Amino acid sequence: MVEYNPFDWQTAHNPYPVYRRLRDEAPVYHNEELGFWALSRYDDVIAAHLNHKDFSSAHGVTIAGMEKDAPFIIVKDPPEHTAHRKIVARLFTPRRISQLEPFIRRTAAGLLDQLKGRERFDVVEDFSFRLPLDVISELIGIPESARDQVHRLSDRIADLDENGQLADDGINATLELAELLAGLVRERRASPGDDVITMLMTTPVEQEDGSERMLTDDELAGRFLELSFAGHETVAKLIPNGVVALTWFPDARRELAAHPALLPNAVEEMLRWDPPSHYQGRWTTRDVQVGDAVIPAGQRVILVTGSAVHDERKYPDPDAFDIHRDIDRHVSFGFGRHLCLGASLARLETRVAFEELLRRFPDFTIDESGVERRVNPNVRGLSRLPIVVG
Ligand code: HEM
Question: Ligand 1: which residues within 6 Å by Cβ?
Answer without folding.
Answer: 57, 61, 73-74, 85, 88, 136, 226-227, 230-231, 234-235, 238, 275-277, 280, 332-334, 338, 340-342, 345-346
